[in-house]
């Protein structure tokens, strides 16, 4: 699957400090690889039936910062992202609107690509759809069946058996108790009440073909389509060697998705799935979490169609720490536009800076603290009329740092 055109990123003098990132599992900051090592990032992508709202954009801009910082620190980066281009919500939306599900998926995926390109997000090295991964998923599920880590129920559906022993064990990623797991599993696409399951939490690996639903050749599994969690496990393992340096996504994916994907991958490979997990906060609007079910989505494409500069949208997203939940308000667009105008004016005035590149690097190295980095740029812009007599960075160097590290092009 094609991704989108990569932005041109200036090369900066010197090197960034290796970032320390907050690991959801360990609940502590963890260092990332050393210069010259490989950093492997997997970020869960969209289900393409309603793209791209600000919650999506906040996640992908956050991990774009990480890719920029890793590369600035001299790391080789392998970035993998999936698209869940066949899933129940997509099929349900297509049925409700009368649109062919494949056409809906392609249209929304293309809109997502356009939004990411407008926001100057670095594309993944491997942008992989679930459908194109089915030839790799089928033998993986067959292996799990043969090893006893999976089982079939009467209708032909195949489930993963959570009694399978893996290292780390089930529950490590989320740290939740069983009661909370059952609640979230039911709310987030699970089927705890399905007859024949050994454990209500056992996740679906292969859904046997149903009338009116798309299906693919499943070999010994019979015709059907894959479950959600096994898709990401296989795509990550196929395109980025395990363990991943970072598994990323929204905080609503911690359970069941990231928990289950890790189980599948570990059962198949014997390797720990990821060394660290980074999760972005939820974005609210009008008092509630932004979600398709509530209908309170703010779309990047609609903001762009209204004439909002994509740089302004990106600045709104960067002004909140990636791990924090926050609520969008239209006034944020005005504030971000004013900030962009101040920065642009300061550059036009030829303002030099003192160690601005270093300040941005240090802020981002501290768990991607973009808000702190932007405050450093604000301070430079405020001093622009008088200039900094001790400034050691010329305007072109300042612009390059803001572009390369924050993704905001001023010139």
Automatic annotation (TrEMBL):
Query: Domain of life here?
Result: Bacteria
Q: Which residues form the tRNA synthetases class I catalytic domain?
A: 36-336
Motif 'HIGH' region — list its residue ranges: 46-56
Q: Which cofactor does it need?
A: Zn(2+)
Q: Which is a Gene Ontology cellular component entry for this protein?
A: cytosol
What InterPro entries does UniProt report for this protein, alphabetically?
Answer: Cys-tRNA/MSH_ligase (IPR024909), Mycothiol_ligase_MshC (IPR017812), Rossmann-like_a/b/a_fold (IPR014729), tRNA-synt_1_cat_dom (IPR032678)
Annotated EC: 6.3.1.13
**Motif 'KMSKS' region per record, residues:** 289-293
- From which residue to which does the signal peptide run? none
* A Pfam family it matches: tRNA-synt_1e
Q: Give the similarity note.
A: Belongs to the class-I aminoacyl-tRNA synthetase family. MshC subfamily.
Q: Per its record, how is this protein called by name?
A: L-cysteine:1D-myo-inositol 2-amino-2-deoxy-alpha-D-glucopyranoside ligase
């Amino acid at each position: 699957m094609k991704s989108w055109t990569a932005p041109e990123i200036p090369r900066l003098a010197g090197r960034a400090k290796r970032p320390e990132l907050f690991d959801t599992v360990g609940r502590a900051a963890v260092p990332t690889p050393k210069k010259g090592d490989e950093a492997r990032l997997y970020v869960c992508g969209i289900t393409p039936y309603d793209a791209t709202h600000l919650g999506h954009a906040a996640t992908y801009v956050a991990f774009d910062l990480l890719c920029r910082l890793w590369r600035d620190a001299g790391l080789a980066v392998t970035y993998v992202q999936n698209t869940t281009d066949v899933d129940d919500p997509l099929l349900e939306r297509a049925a409700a609107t009368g649109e062919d599900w494949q056409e809906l998926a392609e249209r929304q995926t293309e809109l997502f690509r356009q939004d990411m390109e407008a926001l100057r997000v670095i594309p993944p090295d491997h942008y992989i759809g679930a459908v194109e991964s089915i030839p790799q998923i089928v033998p993986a599920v067959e292996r799990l069946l043969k090893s006893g880590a999976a089982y079939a129920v009467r209708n032909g559906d195949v489930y993963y058996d959570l009694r399978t022993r893996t290292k780390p064990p089930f529950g490590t990623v989320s740290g939740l108790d069983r009661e909370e797991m059952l609640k979230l599993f039911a709310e987030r696409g699970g089927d705890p009440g399905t007859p024949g399951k050994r454990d209500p939490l056992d996740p679906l690996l292969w859904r046997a073909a149903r009338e009116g639903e798309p299906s693919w050749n499943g070999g010994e599994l019979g015709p059907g389509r894959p479950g959600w969690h096994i898709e990401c496990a296989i795509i990550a393992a196929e395109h980025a060697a395990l363990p991943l340096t970072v598994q990323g996504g929204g905080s609503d994916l911690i359970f069941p998705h990231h928990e289950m994907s890790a189980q599948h991958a570990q059962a198949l490979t014997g390797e720990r799935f990821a060394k660290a997990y980074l999760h972005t906060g939820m974005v609210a609007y009008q008092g509630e979490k932004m979600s398709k079910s509530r209908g309170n989505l703010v779309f990047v494409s609609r903001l762009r169609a209204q004439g909002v500069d994509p740089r302004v949208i990106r600045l709104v997203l960067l002004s909140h720490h990636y791990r924090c939940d926050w609520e969008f308000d239209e006034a944020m667009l005005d504030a971000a536009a004013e900030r962009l105008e101040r920065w642009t004016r300061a550059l036009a005035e030829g303002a030099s800076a003192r160690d601005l590149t270093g300040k941005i690097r240090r802020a981002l190295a501290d768990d991607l603290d973009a808000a702190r980095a932007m405050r450093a740029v604000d301070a430079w812009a405020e001093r622009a009329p008088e200039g900094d007599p001790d400034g050691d960075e010329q305007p072109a160097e300042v612009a390059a740092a803001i572009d390369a590290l924050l993704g905001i092009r001023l010139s």
